[in-house]
Each structure stands twice: as structure tokens, then as C-alpha cells.
Amino acid sequence: MTVTTTREVKDLEQILSLQRANLIKGLSTAEWQDQGFVTVEHTLDVLQRMHDTAPSIIIKDNDRVIAYALAMPRECGRMVPVLVPMFENLEKLYWKDKPLNQQRFYVMGQICIDKAYRGRGLFDALYQKHKEVYSDRFDLLVTEIATRNTRSLRAHERVGFKTVNIYRDETDEWAVVIWDWA
């Protein structure tokens, strides 16, 4: 397996395929409670524009994307309408007594691992690659997790993320978490 960044359209298409297989709307309650889920459905156009701004992190087994963690710098904030409330909320938050919007941060837009590959340390590998690739440009990595996605909350805490805010929008209740690299 190889941990790398997105490089070609085929990578983005495979991300979309993996995403569709793990959307909460297609999973049973028992499955999403046990295995976690993703909420937002992207388009190829949006993924391409995000990639053009900052390539996402992927793990490939041979030539197949089996895990991803999307990179979303702030300039991507309006590309996905359902994520606008998250970006608006981030504008109001503070980290270490300083407004978040005055700090060098970007958003990890979504993380997903193929079911057949879970439990092998790939979650941590995705985030370590994020740090390796982007720590020269950013000091903080921010994301939000549906509070009912307990598997994801635990995994983010294990990596080093700290919860800084909980809020509700029309889709769910969210925990905003930050991983401070500084």
C-alpha cells in the first residue's frame, strides 16, 4: 500500500466510488453505528477544484484508492453548499485565545477507509501524511464530525485532535476538532 496525494482524475473518481459506498443514507443504522459513515456527497468537478487548490491524501493498494482524507483550504469553503455553515462557524471560533481565522489552518473535508482495510492503521497514516505534506503551509488541521459518529470521534481524539466547539445545523450536531501542529 502507498500513502500519497491525488494525482489524476482516476484517483478522484475512485474517491467518489468509495464515498458513495460509505454515505450514511445507504447504510443500515447498525452498520453506521458500528463502522462510522460519511455525510457529504461531492461531485467530480468539486473534487477536481479542491485538488487544484490542495491535493487530497489517499492510500492505494496497487492502483486502487482504498482510503482518502480530503484537503479543503479555506478558499474551498463555498464549493460545497452543505459545508457553508461549517466554514461560517469556523470564522467565529478561537484557538489558544486567538481568532481561528487569523491562524494558518485548513479543513480536512472528509475521511474514509474501505471496509476491507479498516483496523490496519490507515486512519493514522492518512493524517500523518497530511501533516507531512501540509505542515509547512499550515499550523492547524480542522475538521468537524457528527457527534453520533462515535467511531470517528474516538479515532480523531487518538490522533491528537481536540474538540473546540459543538454546534447544530440543519443536517446534524457537529463537533469541531483541531489538531495543532505548532
Short account of what is shown:
This protein is an alpha+beta fold.
Write up what this structure looks like.
- It is a single chain.
- The chain is of the alpha+beta class and 182 residues long.
- It has a single domain (2-180), classed as Gcn5-related N-acetyltransferase (GNAT) (Aminopeptidase).
- 33% of the residues lie in helices and 29% in strands.
- The chain has 6 helices and 9 strands; from the N terminus they run E-H-H-H-E-E-H-E-E-E-H-E-H-E-E.
- Helix 5 (122-134) links the parallel strand 6 (105-113) and strand 7.
- It is globular and about 45 Å long.
- The mean pLDDT is 90.
Low-confidence spans: none
DSSP helical segment count: 6
Helix-strand pattern, N to C?
EHHHEEHEEEHEHEE
Count of DSSP strands: 9
CATH class: Alpha Beta
Total number of domains = 1
What quaternary form is this? single chain
Derived from helix and strand composition plus strand pairing, the structural class reads alpha+beta
| Strand line-up in the sheet with most strands | 1-2-3-6-7-9-8
Shape: globular
Separation of the first and last Cα atoms: 29 Å
Q: What is the fourth-level CATH superfamily? A: Gcn5-related N-acetyltransferase (GNAT)
State the CATH topology. Aminopeptidase
Provide the β-strand percentage band.
25-35%
Approximate helicity band: 25-40%
Largest sheet: 7 strands, mixed
